[in-house]
Specification:
The protein has about 450 residues and is of the alpha/beta class. The protein has 2 domains: about 120 residues, Alpha-Beta Complex (Aspartate Aminotransferase, domain 1); about 260 residues, 3-Layer(aba) Sandwich (Aspartate Aminotransferase, domain 2). Helix content is about 35%, strand content about 15%. It is built from 12 helices and 15 strands. It has a 7-stranded mixed beta sheet, sandwiched between helices. It has a 4-stranded antiparallel beta sheet with strand order 11-12-15-14, with helices on one face. Helix 5 runs parallel beside helix 10 and helix 6 crosses helix 7. It is globular, with a radius of gyration of 25 Å. The relative contact order is 0.14. The model has no long low-confidence stretch (mean pLDDT about 90).
Length: about 450
């Protein structure tokens, strides 16, 4: 049976209902030059033995992070994952766990989510957390929607120092919500200041969204902003893309944030070529009815034994669609379990030590690279494990020459921030040894000296 079992008559009827002549007319938005008018010129099919050999040959063209010295960050971070994490989450009962609608057969899954929520709430300094979101970007978008519901206002203020992909996702979510989005800049030192948001705050602002550490790795001071935001009747939304920073920095909840969201990939989840990742979402108890996603709670059964239930699930498959807080929000069950296992193994002291190690590594690398002629630290503010360097020569050329030396030197950011021309976002984690960082400095020094001698 075909996957789309529509008859020609049914297809014709659907085309008539949407006022097109045929299916081809649906693709007229694609430029003519990009439309495929003929079959692909593919080689004949291979047998299984030859196909596997071919795929292995293709795979060997890739380089993994164990084969190179990688200093990449920008929202996806290379951290060590203890062997015990994958051993535990790969157990069959976790991989095949039933969605926790029926608590009598889902106690293990429900307890794992409950423990996850507890740890996320503690790390963010908030009173409760949901069972997770798709990723950090969608969590930020859901936080903005939640703020609109809470305040019944129609304007969102968005810091330009938030991860550009997060900002794109938020704008997509709010595209048809009749909402005004205003973006504000960062100061000379890379931080958001009260003066920068003052001119934007009015009685229509639902929320001010700020990332810390921001996209440039700079640690923001939300405490300086929260009274100004709250006096305007708006909510303060704090977000992050590097979860390990929570092990060192003062929590955003303790700095006055009303909603804290971010990416939890760093907590035991592999890079996985970009996903699946996990969105962390926490807020204050008074806003719980407007929080998207699921909420697992602890209770007592009829015999006095501890148990867990799905206490809140305000999405369209549970309640009427018009009453749902989100129509496209679910939780990343296995990734949340991975996060819970990872944090349980690390413990508060272990996470704090890891955060300190990341901090020390990045600052050692920054001092080494900034000391080279033609290299300057762009922002003179406290940073966590990422920092921005500015060069006198094109960054694209530098990255190409570093790659020849088996070094992935960072992320070129001027495509998203044209004002940061020839700037490079560099990251160092516990996976970057002193030997690797010294190798980076030596290689970069040779590149810059060779360019200067031309």
């Amino acid at each position: 049976m075909r996957y789309l079992p529509h008859t020609p008559e049914e297809i014709q009827k659907m085309c008539q209902d949407i006022d097109v002549q045929n299916i081809d007319e649906l693709f007229q938005v694609i430029p003519e030059a990009l439309q495929l008018k003929q079959l692909l010129d593919l080689e004949p099919p291979l047998c299984e033995i030859d196909l596997l050999k071919h795929m292995r040959e293709l795979n060997h063209k890739n380089k993994n992070l164990l084969q190179v010295d990688a200093f990449l960050g920008a929202g996806a971070y290379h951290h060590y994952i203890p062997v015990a994490v994958n051993s535990l989450v790969s157990r069959g009962e976790f991989l095949t766990a039933y969605t926790p609608y029926q608590p009598e057969i889902s106690q293990g899954t429900l307890q794992a989510i409950f423990e996850f929520q507890t740890m996320v709430a503690s790390l963010t300094g908030m009173e409760l957390a949901n069972a997770s979101n798709y990723d950090g970007a969608s969590a930020l978008a859901e936080a903005a929607l939640m703020a609109l519901r809470v305040t019944k206002r129609k304007k969102i203020l968005l810091a330009k120092s938030i991860h550009p992909q997060y900002r794109h996702v938020l704008k997509t979510y709010l595209l048809h919500q009749n909402v005004e989005i205003q973006e504000f800049d960062w100061s000379e030192n890379g931080r958001v200041t009260p003066a920068l948001i003052k001119e934007y705050l009015d009685d229509q602002v639902a929320a001010v969204c700020i990332q810390s550490p921001n996209f440039f790795g700079i640690v923001e001071n939300l405490s300086q902003l929260e009274s100004q935001v709250h006096q305007a009747g708006a909510l303060l939304i704090g977000c992050f893309s590097e979860a390990v920073s929570l092990g060192m920095l003062k929590s955003m909840g303790d700095q006055g944030a009303d909603i804290v969201v971010g990416e939890g990939q760093s907590f035991g989840n592999s890079l996985n070529l970009g996903g699946p990742y996990i969105g962390l979402f926490a807020t204050r108890e008074k806003f719980v009815r407007q929080m998207p996603g699921r909420l697992v709670s602890e209770t007592i059964d009829s015999e006095g034994n501890r148990g867990y239930v799905l206490a809140l699930a305000t999405r369209e498959q549970h309640i009427r669609r018009e009453k749902a807080t989100s129509n496209i929000c679910t939780n990343q069950g296995l990734c949340a379990l991975t996060t819970a296992v990872y944090l349980s193994l690390m413990g508060p002291k272990g996470l704090a030590r890891l955060a300190r190690q990341n901090y020390d590594s990045s600052h050692y690398l920054q001092r080494s690279l900034s000391a080279l002629p033609g290299v300057e630290l762009k922002f003179a503010s406290p940073f966590f494990n990422e920092f921005v360097l500015q060069f006198e020569m094109p960054v694209k050329d530098i990255l190409f020459k570093l790659k020849e030396k088996n070094i992935f030197g960072g992320v070129m950011i001027e495509q998203d921030f044209p004002q940061l021309k020839n700037c490079l976002l560099v990251c160092a984690t516990e996976m970057n040894s002193k030997k690797q960082m010294d190798h980076y400095m030596q290689a970069l020094s040779e590149i810059l000296n060779s360019e200067g001698s031309l």
